[in-house]
Amino acid sequence: MKSAKTIRSSIVITVAMLGGLAGGAAAQITGDIVATTRGNLVIRPIDHATFVMAWSGQTIYVDPVGGGDRFARLPAPDLILVTDIHGDHLNAETLSAIVTPETVIVAPAAVAEQLPASLMGQTTTLANSQTRTFNDVGVEGVPMYNLTEDRLRFHDKGRGNGYVVTVGATRVYIAGDTEDIPEMRALRNIHVAFVPMNLPYTMTEEQAASGVNAFNPEVVYPYHFQGSDVEKFKALVEAGGGDTEVRLGDWYGLR
Description:
By secondary structure, the protein is of the alpha/beta class. It has six helices and 15 strands. The protein is globular.
């Protein structure tokens, strides 16, 4: 049996700056809270596929795009995870604007090949199934790709990374751009998941819900869902017989 839900929305935690911050020595991150064995994990949606997590004094950016100003009021990133080469996941100008000398960028090889030389020294290349640890944050590259014939051209298997991030004993699955692939359906012991749905690039609400019901995370956030019906997705997950809580964050309100 799963433990009681540990997420609470709209809680503010002050995160001290580790690597530099425009405008001050600390910043507030508002978002949902997940209790871990080593303090709270704060989750802050930004836009589409971009979000920020804070844990144990560290700040993790996922697919930061949209320019440096978007992140000016947030702590500078200690760790940046980039999933794929498309412009809604990778923007070298944004990365250059937000990194500090201490920031580590984690990316698949296809992404690393597109980064400027100024960022290469801070970039760790991670392939599917490889695992590294960065300041007690575990990062595993997992597959993300298309299965449906008319979508195969968008995401080749092995090019991009989803990620399983481990903080304390809490496992966070970041799906990236994928359909409900066997590797996703086989996941176990996932506490928080971020799952996309939009056509033609990823999957339908039905596919996303089916995949989620297969691996049954404690909490799932639909993200990267522009044009999709997240209420339909939520209803399908809830009808699936598991005990996953669907959280509908504000992914498109911050422009």
